Amino acid sequence: MALGDLMASRFSQTSVPLVTNHCDDYASSRGEDAGDLASQRRDLETASSSYGNAAVATTSMAYLPQTIVLCELRHDAFEAPVPTGPSDNGLVSKWRPKDRMKTGYVALVLCLNISVDPPDVIKISPCARMECWIDPFSMAPQKALETIGKTLSVQYERWQPKARYKVQLDPTVDEVKKLCNTCRRYAKSERVLFHYNGHGVPKPTANGEIWLFNKSYTQYIPLPISDLDSWLKTPSIYVFDCSASGMIVNAFLELHDWNSSSSTGSVKDCILLAACEAHETLPQSAEFPADVFTSCTTPIKMALRWDAWDMAAEICLSQLPSLVENPNAEFQPSPFFTEQLMAFEIWLDHGSEEKKPPEQLPIVLQVLLSQCHRFKALVLLGRFLDMGSWAVDLALSVGIFPYVLKLLQTTTPELRQILVFIWTKILALDKSCQVDLVKDGGHAYFIRFLDSMEAYPEQRAMAAFVLAVIVDGHRRGQEACIEAGVVQVCLKHLQCSMPNDGQNEPLFLQWLCLCLGKLWEDFTEAQIIGLQADAPAIYVPLLSEPQPEVRASAVFALGTLLDVGGDACRDGVGGDDECDDDDKFRAEISIVRSLLSVVSDGSPLVRAEVAVALARFAFGHKQHLKSIAAAYWKPQSNSLLNSLPSLAHVKGTINQYMPHTSILSSQIGPLTRVGNDNQSVVRDGRVSTSSPLTSSGIMHGSPLSDDSSQHSDSGMLNDVLSAMGSSTIQDPNHFNAMYSQCVLAMCTLAKDPSPCIASLGRRVLSIIGIEQVVTKPVNPSSGSRRPAEPTSSPTPSLAGLARSSSWFDMNAGHLPLTFRTPPVSPPRPSYLTGMRRVYSLEFRPHLMNSPDSGLADPLLGSAGSSGVAERSLLPQSTIYNWSCGHFSKPLLTTADDAEEMLFKREGREKFAVEHIAKCQHSSISRLNNQIAGWDTKFETGTKAALLQPFSPIVIAADENERIKIWNYEDAVLLNGFDNHNFPDKGISKLCLVNELDDSLLLVASCDGSIRIWKDYALNGKQKLVTAFSSIQGHKPGVRSLSAVVDWQQQSGYLYASGEISSIMLWDLDKEQLLNSIPSSPDCSISALSASQVHGGQFAAGFVDGSVRLYDIRTPEMLVCAKRPHTRVERVVGIGFQPGLDSGKFVSASQAGDIEFLDIRNPRDTYLTINAHRGSLTALAVHRHAPIIASGSAKQIIKVFSLEGEVLGTIRYYSTFMAQTIGPVSCLTFHPYQVLLAAGAADACVSIYTDDNAQAR
């Protein structure tokens, strides 16, 4: 099978869902267990249909969701250090030949002493005699010695004819010393080769001494290797052709280890070649010459003495008679290469990095020269390179590079795919090959392949990757690719590519973006070409692609089109010639508008690239952005804000409503000032028309305007963006609005739920003069407010600003920032009355070397002299290096752990099917047996709890977002960690993602922040998989968001709402906001529940006691709206009844009543349970068993059947041995067992079951 077909087969297999319905396969493959599992499934289906009157045509597999999310490469510890891209130095480049060093002098020392055998060598008879292919006994000894010396010199001269040669025959120590000194003197810094033949003297000693003669040839005289090294110095090559020559090598290494400081040269500049190991003697077979090692200088003559070559020659010659007699006869080539390829293929089937490297690899490279075997050799070579970086390094070390480089000059179509694959593997390891490719014109080969339509998208993505590496930081590569038209080719395919054309199209789009981004990076000429080709408009649709990698790559490419050279022209400093770039400036503004649309993207990968791009924009436009930011710390006269400087220090003031379509997070309100030339007079919450804000459109819906409460869903930001779109390039308000939104976006990123993104955001703010400082929150003076408690009204000191807050408070939130400007007046204590939390904000003066330019602050007059230093503040993009990791991994084989994961999944599905059937058939009389109790030691009580389905593990969290995991069978604390560093937001919900596989812990904060963790049960090993803000915008006059969320595994959707007039629908697989479903403009959602059986269906409870059922699969989405609760009290909990009936659900209000609803029943409810009197705090509905539970602030838990029967009551007792609970704060059922976990305000977590279970 060709490699291209193999790749197509492999990728077509991985395009299906990662986990399929395994129960049928499990039943068919498990023999006697199959009948039991099938029977359990039938029972489960029968039981399911008994809960509703509707004819539900579905199977038990609805209970076992097949969707798996957040398991891609990008989710493998995103917060960990980013993997590096292809390297251009270090270990991976050792395969390259070093700079060639000329061998200037060759010393040939022969110690043969013909006719006298050394005393320590016993020769066989007959034995090897030939030296340099001359029989020394065929002539007189002296003549033979001279002839052998002359022949050896000729053999070396074939390899290096320009060197000077000196021969010493049976020399003394003094003669060798003189020879070595002469060689080094004439060679100077060139290499000296020292050849030693010791066949006529004893073997080297253990001390590393070789033997020479005295003048009378009566004694053997030792010569230490240390003396020889001191004479020859470095660089040098030693060739030792004698028995036990390995002793010399060992002694040489020990010499340099012991005395490296006094060595005359580096051991790295010495090459030692020894004929055998220290314990070996030279071969004496008469079939070979005595100097087998030296005979390697005549390889052909030596090779022809092997029997294999004799056989090969005989096979060829034996065909001559038939070829002469029959002109139509065909020559049958030797099977040698075919056999070697077969052996290599067998090794590929069974070999690995841990096993011995394939002996056939050097031969495979030789096979590349044979046209008839070339294709198969390349395919096998590609399979070998796919085994890992070690295989690529090994192949490069044996000399693959010149072969595959030369093959790029061929036009054979069938070789194109495999050559692109091979080069992808090489460049994924070593970037330095980019120079060779450009030098030989190889880039044109990949551009042609990229532009061809015959290859699979995956293979064309490889070509785009190769081109991206070629232009990465390589100006000559960038210029060559531009000349070859790579910009036009890439943009053409970005325009024409349909996202659903192929299974691997996203990877192709991703690398087209990355290729152009690397081409434009810090290359002004290339940027101009991209802008002239209208590249920003082509990239805009890619920002809404479903794959986060494509969106992030598109953001990266757009960011590289932003020039960071300086903003002298933008500030009016340069002349007409310097500022004749209005088109480019307009294009940059357009690019930033596009980037602002994804500043709250669901993927950290995308938001990281947005931060990097905004940093580039901030660097190029820093003067205007600094003036915008400085305006909010600049005290103004005639303004009420001037008299309230403490507002800039206060945390917790009222936030302004931002619509769900806004790019900003919920805690960011509109800017109140964008300039400082005209003064804004604030009277009774109104802004005078003399302010520049009123003409720019930015004040629409601002905190100080009268229409903020009437703000439409189009949003202030949309008004700003539309105003910018209609403004001319000369309109200053156009820029003010854009720069203001950029500052807001930077603050959004600086408060990102992901620590990595937040760090990037703070670095961006530092570019415009806002720096992070150490701040410590002051503990609130009052206790935490109950969720139903209304927000307190503003103090009299803040009259007229009821719907306003300072810019810092709206945009900084928990972000400890300071603007580099002289300090303002100290805060007045009276203004702090009633504030929940105060931050100490430090202001630090920023000293400037340049004169004041007349702008609002001396900071804004900074000149370009510090541009180089400030450029170091620019954060670097990570998407390119991260994306390169895809091609470093095996592409032709599946993961080794896939079978293990499948086996684990099958076991859990079997467990789930068994226990679902038990739950549905269970008859529970009472549920008040406490089997475990755990004092979490949470200071603020337990806010949320969760039972893991397949392990005896309970997860709990408190108001400060401290998470603890506990094994309730062994009573062992497994792990504990903080969800984030700002612990006053509060936990809203805990959910398990991928519960049938390696589950992830989803933690939702009350501000709408979502953080998802892996390895959460391993002590200190938890890793953040992803994080994002699920709620964007909230209503006017709202102090906190009080977010409510729920996760639906069937669809892969996350539903989120709160103090907003919509429900945010997030696709966690795409990490993207799919839709914003309108809920109620007058009433907020207080409870959400997603169906775990029917994907796309969820129920919402509101603060006025009404409930609604939604199904996003229907055009209207809203299925029904009811008001089951007679009193206007908030819905505390809501959930779908057990079973497959999608029309029945349960709702509980704070008033204490629990209502059972059926959408087919014309009445609002068909059953009412008055569970508690005005104190209901929690509701739990079992996923499969016919029971529900409710808890109250009066320390009571009640368990009911679906018919309203009380199955258990758990009360607080003060006795020493009795079970005790505090005010109930959360309840949760085990998904597949009748277990109830209860969390209380006194930090205790208890687990209850029926009376038959044994207490632990």
TrEMBL record:
GO cellular component terms attached to this protein's record: cytoplasm; TORC1 complex
Polar residues compositional bias, start-end: 676-697, 705-715, 778-796
InterPro entries found in the cross-reference section: ARM-like, ARM-type_fold, Raptor, Raptor_N, WD40/YVTN_repeat-like_dom_sf, WD40_repeat_dom_sf, WD40_rpt
GO biological process entries: cellular response to amino acid stimulus; cellular response to starvation; maintenance of shoot apical meristem identity; positive regulation of cell growth; regulation of autophagy; TOR signaling
Pfam family, one: Raptor_N
Residue ranges constituting the Raptor N-terminal CASPase-like domain according to the UniProt record: 100-253
Gene3D superfamilies reported for this sequence: Leucine-rich Repeat Variant, YVTN repeat-like/Quinoprotein amine dehydrogenase
Start and end residues of each stretch annotated as Disordered: 676-715, 777-798
GO molecular function ontology, one term from the record: protein-macromolecule adaptor activity
Keywords on record: Repeat, WD repeat
Name the UniProt record assigns to this protein: Raptor N-terminal CASPase-like domain-containing protein
Family that this chain belongs to: Belongs to the WD repeat RAPTOR family.
